[in-house]
User: What shape does this take?
Amino acid sequence: MSWIDRVRKSLPFAQKRDTPDNLWTKCPSCAEMLFTKEYEENLSVCPRCEHHGRIGVDRRLDQVMDPGFEILPSPKVKEDPLKFRDSKKYPDRLKAARAANPHPDALTNALGSIDGQRAVVGVQDFAFMGGSMGMAVGAAFVAGAARALKERIPYVIFTAAGGARMQEGILSLMQMPKTTVAVRRLREAGLPYIVVLTDPTTGGVTASYAMLGDVQIAEPGCLIGFAGQRVIQDTIREKLPEGFQRAEYLHEHGMIDMVVPRADLRSTLATVLAYLSPKARLEKVEAA
Assistant: This one.
């Protein structure tokens, strides 16, 4: 070791200080560097440009539901039914996704209340294989709807998905009619089905349960669509309008009912659920 290295190591101000890797968060929209703690306290919404960042299941449930909610068990399904393999085996991809996420698949249900209004709440997590819809997601959706039917309470779903899960082929596409039937059962029972679209909601999820809500709510700026913009533009050979497939554009054109900032989601959902609940409708009928 040279004398200069020995001197440098002996100086207290020359010592390298350890800092957490997650001290700062870069906004994916405006590229502003945000103090992570403040960003999370602001519900993962950029204070500069109001970009709504993607959040996981647990944080979503904590933000929306009253304390004391119950995480419902995930249904068991056959894994890797097609023995699919691309650059990796499908079971290896599932194993890696489960190691990086707290829940066994992309859709998790919880039973509890939103500002006093009882409901079953399902949350899709884009961090789990892009929130892709496979047999496990379809089974979880049906289980959530079935629990809502049993409890005679609404079903609220937060969608976030890149579409169907390619590793399950046609079996993933079969979840589209399966979930649609579950929504129909809720409707026949007179139970509200509320959809909150988050970034991104695309593909087969958009083509099925994501657009069948009695009330369609979206977070600001979220991507909502079936095919990608480049695919659509290349097909119709026309330039797409500004903001195409964004929540505000869809709201302006009547595809969704309202665009609600994350800070107002809890109170908005509680108001909608109170208005649409079977008890509220019965009281209106009796008053008439």
